[in-house]
Amino acid sequence: MTTFRAETAPGEQPPPDAVAPRDSTPQAPTSVARLNDTIRQFVQTWGSVWVEGELTAWDVRGSVVFGQLKDVGTDAKLRFRIWSSTRERLASDLSAGDRVIACVKADYYPRDGSFTFTVSAMRHVGLGDHLEKLERLRSQLRSEGLFDPERKKSLPFLPHRIGLITGADSDAEKDVHRNAELRWPRVRFRTIHAAVQGDRCVPETIAALKVLEADPEVDVIIIARGGGDAQSLLGFSDERLVRAVAAASTPVVSAIGHENDHPLLDDVADLRASTPTDAAKRVVPDVAEQLSVVRDLRARLTRRLTDRVAADIRQLEHVRSRPVLRTPASLVMSRMQEVELAVARGRSLIDRLVDTDARRTGELRAALRALSPASTLGRGYAIAHLADGVIVRDAHQAPVGAGVVVTVARGSFAARSEGEVVERSDDAPAI
């Protein structure tokens, strides 16, 4: 149990007739003023304390900032204020969602019993370490091929429905909707709000991405934020979010709205848009431009068809202007005499060839007949041959009594040899 000392600050007088808090009893209670003054004196002994947490509120009221710090990982919170003299020394990009370390001094106000902290210094926590880790992660993901252009998916020409992940009531959401509807009035969205900085950024964005991935009507997903400093963009370089986007089957557009120190989401997304407005222009075609393109194409097609038909008509007229096509019969008539002469020459040539071949055939027939044994037999000669068919060429082949068959020009007859009659003269003609 804490005991408060009833000491009075120099130059101050304790409340009259007030018992010190440590000496209070039901019969002699202390006063509220004495208790508050005692608490204030005790709090002032704490001095300044360095504390780390997330900015969950950042309310600028004139020259004073009223804010709130939340403990990372728990729900513990403390309220603070920053005087203008201190604010001038702080970074100008501090805002809600940033993770910071601050030097605070407790203040307790006896008048109303309020308790707050005054900030004398504040800066982003470990930004340099975060950026160093980010570059190492960037190199690792690049080596894995997650940044390769070949793996990036093409965006549909006209998406059926656009998935949008952005902060609630943010300018980024309004910019995407307004510019997309200006370009294509009938465009449809499915918008899921998520924290765009702080500890809730990564899990809420991943959850929204999964929901849109599961929607078969969503053809492209835009993750939009209205820019920011390097600290507030750290969530979009988280490895969990980057790998979830790389694994998505639906094309993802990164529209964080910044130019320098771009997060890893830009590298792994299928398309990087410089701003949410640029994302709307890249995802949705301009209906006016498309109608203009259609009109231009129709005009070009009409000109091409007209020119082609005109050229074909001119060529047809040129062909028809030739004499042979004006009077087709003239071509036949001019060739008729040539055909008749060719037929006559062919007939004459054939007749000569037939006559020549006929004469040659007759000569060959006569020569053949002259050399034929039948012609010899016709001149009175005969052929004798024995019963076994051997032709008798010598008289000794047909001794006396031998049977022979004699062939003459007209038929054959049998005979019997009487032996050699006379000696054969060498001048006797041979058959």
Automatic annotation (TrEMBL):
Subcellular location: Cytoplasm
Enzyme Commission number(s) from the entry: 3.1.11.6
Keyword ATP-binding listed: no
Domain Exonuclease VII large subunit C-terminal: from-to ranges: 146-357
Pfam family, one: Exonuc_VII_L
Top-tier EC class: hydrolase
Domain OB-fold nucleic acid binding as annotated: residue spans: 31-123
Entry keyword set: Cytoplasm, Exonuclease, Hydrolase, Nuclease
Region (Disordered): 1-29
Database matches in CDD domains: ExoVII_LU_OBF
Domain of life: Bacteria
Catalysed transformations (reactions): Exonucleolytic cleavage in either 5'- to 3'- or 3'- to 5'-direction to yield nucleoside 5'-phosphates
Assembly, per entry: Heterooligomer composed of large and small subunits.
UniProt family annotation: Belongs to the XseA family.
Stated role: Bidirectionally degrades single-stranded DNA into large acid-insoluble oligonucleotides, which are then degraded further into small acid-soluble oligonucleotides.
Listed name of the protein: Exodeoxyribonuclease 7 large subunit
Gene source species: Microbacterium awajiense
Gene name linked to the record: xseA
